[in-house]
Design goal:
With about 230 residues, the chain is mainly beta. It has a domain of about 130 residues. It is built from three helices and eleven strands, in the order H-H-E-E-E-E-E-E-E-E-E-E-E-H. A hairpin with a 2-residue loop joins strand 10 and strand 11. The longest helix is centred in the last third of the chain and has 8 residues.
Length: about 230
């Protein structure tokens, strides 16, 4: 009896078709957009982002609605320098303040539990769907739980949902591109060299989204959760 080709054997063997997904790390350089909405804070945000895990830098350009009021905000977070710049490019103004949050890379932690694998779109024909893995786990210090979805190939963030005592927070990612098209955007502009430091108000930036929570609701920054992997590590 002639031997079956190796490829045919793989097609006939279930083990070759189904490989168990594993926790993963997103690419260290990402550019894209995201939408955030919360249950109780009446907050909706659209943001363009640049993410540099190598240099530990993040830039966000946001537009949103908080308590029925619109706002826009552009910030540059430099974790190695423990500094955050709020940038007004049109007026060429800049403020600088301490950033006391730890940088956490986007990743699915090793202790996450696989919820399942699914196809976004359709699996009827090639190119009609996207294979994704959904994971769930607990936030640090028993502060809540999360569900995060990333692509099977590349570990690109797709969505996340967090549940804490404050309610649910949902983030959706799209238009993600691996790499940084303009690395200069991750450095402070020249007009930020003499950036003014605002008067202390008792609050401090805690994570991505508390930045605008403090600015647009008044009072101390709320410690809102971050995108997939950014706040999962214990």
């Amino acid at each position: 009896m002639p031997k079956l080709p190796l490829l045919l054997l793989c097609l006939l063997a279930p083990a070759c078709l189904a490989q168990k997904p594993h926790p993963c790390k997103s690419p260290p350089l990402l550019t894209g957009a995201l939408v955030v909405s919360t249950q109780n804070e009446k907050l909706w945000v659209y943001a363009n982002y640049m993410y540099d895990a190598i240099g530990r830098r993040i830039r966000l350009k946001e537009f949103g609605v908080s308590d029925n009021k619109t706002f826009s905000l552009e910030v540059l977070l430099l974790f190695r320098e423990a500094a955050m710049y709020t940038i007004d490019t049109e007026k060429r103004k800049c403020t600088k303040q301490p950033l006391k949050a730890d940088f956490q890379p986007m990743e699915i932690p090793k202790d996450a539990h696989l919820v399942g694998q699914a196809v976004l779109g359709s699996s009827s024909a090639p190119g009609q769907g996207l294979l994704v893995n959904t994971w769930q786990g607990e936030l640090p210090n028993n502060t809540g739980s999360y569900i995060g979805t990333v692509t099977e190939f590349g570990c690109i963030p797709v969505s996340s949902a967090y549940h804490t005592s404050s309610g649910w927070m949902v983030t959706s990612f799209f238009n993600n591109v691996i790499g940084i098209l303009d690395p200069d955007q991750l450095n402070p502009p020249d007009f930020c060299q003499q950036a003014e430091e605002p008067a202390a108000d008792g609050g401090e930036p805690a994570d991505f989204f508390s930045l605008f929570a403090k600015r647009h609701r008044g009072g101390p920054a709320a410690r809102l959760p971050q995108p997939p992997g950014a706040n999962f590590k214990k």
